Fold this sequence. Notes:
Layout: H1 2-23, H2 26-44, H3 46-50, E1 63-71, H4 73-83, E2 87-89, H5 92-95, E3 101-109, H6 110-118, E4 123-128, E5 131-136, E6 143-151, E7 161-166, E8 172-177, E9 183-188, E10 192-199, E11 206-212, E12 217-219, E13 223-225, E14 244-246, E15 251-254, H7 266-269, E16 276-279, E17 282-285, E18 289-295, E19 298-299, H8 304-312, E20 319-325, E21 339-345, E22 348-350, E23 352-363, E24 367-379, E25 382-392, E26 395-405, E27 411-421, E28 423-434, E29 439-449, E30 454-465, E31 475-499, E32 506-530, E33 535-563, E34 567-587, E35 602-620, E36 624-641, E37 647-665, E38 669-680, H9 684-687, E39 691-695, E40 698-701, E41 709-720, E42 724-744, E43 747-770, E44 775-790, E45 796-813, E46 817-826, E47 829-831, E48 834-836, E49 839-850, E50 855-862, E51 871-875, E52 879-888, E53 893-902, E54 907-909
Parallel strand pairs: 2-5, 6-12, 6-13, 18-21, 40-43
Antiparallel strand pairs: 1-3, 4-5, 6-9, 7-8, 7-10, 10-11, 14-15, 15-20, 16-17, 17-18, 18-19, 20-21, 22-54, 23-24, 23-53, 24-25, 25-28, 26-27, 26-52, 27-30, 28-29, 29-31, 30-31, 31-32, 32-33, 33-34, 34-35, 35-36, 36-37, 37-38, 38-41, 39-40, 41-42, 42-43, 43-44, 44-45, 45-46, 46-49, 47-48, 48-51, ...
Amino acid sequence: MKNSATMWNMGMACAYLIGIIILNKQFIVWLMRVSTIIFLFLLTSLQFLMAVPVNGQKMSDCKVTIKLEDESLLAGLKKIEAQTNFRFYYRKSEIKEITDLNIAFSTRTVENTLYELLKNTDFSFRQVNNNILLERRRQETGYTVRGRVIGSDHKPVELATIQIMKVTNQSIVSTALADTGGRFSLKVYEQGDYLLKVSSVETDSLIQKVIVGNAEVLEVPDIVLNKSAIQLKDVTITTTRQLISRSLDKLILNIEGSIYEKGEDALKLFNVIPGVYVSGKEIVFRGSQGVTVYIDNRKVLLSGDQLLSYLRSIPSESIKSYELKAVPGAENDAQNGGVIINIVLKSEYKYGLSGNVSSGYWYNKYDNTKATTFLNYRAGKFNFQGSFNYFWTPAFYEDNISQQFKSTGIISKQTEKYDERYHSIGYNASVDYKLNSQQTVGVSYNMFTNPGSVSSTYKTDIDYLANIKASTVDSSLHTKKSTTFRYVNQMANAFYRNKLDTIGSKLDIGYSYISYGLRDPSALETEFLNGNGAESHSRDSLFTKTIGKSMVHVANIDLEKHLFKSLVFNTGSKFTASNTDYSMDYRNGLNEQSPLDPLKSNRFLYSEYILAFYGTVAKSFKQWDFKVGIRAEQTNYHGKSVTTEQTIGRNQWNFFPSAFLNRKFGENHSLTLSYNRTIDRPGFRQLNPFVTYVSLNSIQEGNPNLRSYFSNNLQLEYLLKRKYSFTVGYQNTNNAITENLTNIGDVIISRDENITDNNNVFTSLYIPIKLTNWWEINTSATLRYRTIDIHGTEALNRSKFTQYLRTASKFNLRRKYFVEVSGFYKTSDFYGIYDQQRVGKLDINIKKSFLNDRLTSSFELQDPFHLYKPRYEINTAEFTRNVLRNRLDFVRYIGVFFTYNFSSGKKQDNKENVDAAGNEARGRL
């Protein structure tokens, strides 16, 4: 029945793909091209498949690095074979039922790894040359060690961990948990001397020697565990897992088990990733590259305040790791600005209820508060999860601007102040159900909205001087723009996963529905003053109202097949259908009852359909790893202005290859070469042909003629001792979308256009140094040389050499104090096609744990010396503009934060991390 179900599922998948082929003849041509490319890749790699060197070695000396999460013994053996010259011999019928094995990520000898794999089985192993034989132990040689664990109060200690190890090499033979009565039972298969290690939360650990003789059952006297001794109160026990690890195509930051596991949130942890930094409302990599955020392989389709608030609502206690893909592969959407960072949430949860609550207060210019909760309930085959978060985070910035218009010589001194009263609420609910050990289904829903309306005020004060030498104001403008903003962002998702075998093969099918709606009424009024400060003529007033809605449907199917000798094949397809409807009314007045201006008002309809197919092949050898792939996407879009009847449209195929090649030189050195091609599509709102008034003298125009643009990325990384890295890279982009500023008189017009070609050469390094057991310094630096060719009325070529340095000193102090002092410095760089001056920042974070690490508090001091003052300079043929940003929310503040964790029950792994129709469309709404 199991094989029949698997064949039925594979049959349905094939029928689905056949249906697509019948409906789209162009797919046949594409499939032939892809098949030819993959065949050539395999053919040129055949020499590696056929020639693997063999050297004699001992399993007690040879080391492997593996990790198992609810995987089979067969999967573990294949991972060992992939990294060594050993080959295993066994009866498959005897070991195929050994499943659900878990081993933490670590480097061990093959011998110790096998002890871990077989410790709760009746199998033994022995080496013959380069072969390892697995065979059942004789039942009559088994011996039972049992006893009871009690506390100093003579009450049973439940769920204590008991391990029995050989005295000779201290390899773990068997492990057990004490039951509710404190009793345990362990089995060993050889007579001799053993060490019995007993440990439990809030008690001292204990190790005692036991001797297994002829008796089949050895009764151990009651083991008494005392409360933790006073002299041990300041000791911090940490995991041996590396904070940072790397695979062929990604860097992994292991949060679980690290100093960052408690009392943090997802946004703060971005600053821990080498080369990544949260700057204002942007997450940047290597000082200038953008970051696309995923959670469990699903793209977080939010931006700005919404993205920051959402990431703040995810507690570090629910995060397993971060995965950084500096060069994404073909399995990822080709639409990815910059690099991909995937947040992997924990999949291991206990039976019963577990979760955490957190709150915080911080002050920047206003009072800010947050309250979040995360709950998980595990019962039988069901896993329920929910979260709620609330934020009161007023936003603001203050700019000082000076301008000179070259044709008239007029100088303007300008101050812009933006203030926003911002509430936000987020909900998330999901449930997974295991149909059987292979198949899982699940649904989830999340919503992000603001209660009531967001209220914002934009004030612009401009003083005009006749020329650069003038000392008195000639005239002034004072503009106030008041806006109330309402939005709802929702996503519903369903997925099905079928684990096709015990070595990692799987089939995923998913569907997502995304909706986004907004209402954005604004009233703008301008006063005109003469040199004496009196109003010179009547005020100018304008009322605008934007109403928009977007709907996106996404369906995906993905197959991952593990073949012989660590050969992995991935293929899949995804279909995305997007529809948006935006309208903007302009009224000559200050409210909705004012007269409509039909010449400016407009409505824009846009529809887009993207059909994607991909295939990748990955192979591992002893010293070599490679992965090649190709992705094909057909984009069909159509836009129409209801008012002007102007239309836009395009239907085209694009191909996106990717390739990764890694060569290891012993255990301490490796080189990785990576390449990919990506696309950047304009956002839906960028295409709307509307004019948005920031002030009477500053407007933003949409551009329905924007086109997608493409980038090629190539980089080579050298890795030393799996932690020090040195990278060189090159990127080129043609017809990139860039903000272009022009003017009509003293009115500045901002418009996105396809006007630049970029060439980018960089070198980057990451150096972590552990000076003492309690002091560590992590440093990353990037040197970048960029040239841009600007198309327009006058072709222009510009170049810059930019240096970016970030460092963090981390102190693990006594009494569970943790202090981090971090900062960055960046020299002059491009701001679009214009200039950004040097900028820096320094931050301080102090953490303290209480109640056996269940309660974590932190004190944060961000930019206390007010170093972060970005300055932008714009110099065109018509005008010069210098902008200094004095204040910005989220950059400079002082705050305190608290998190409390609770849990109960036995840890189980039930929640599936599935890319359930994850898509790239929602981020463009």
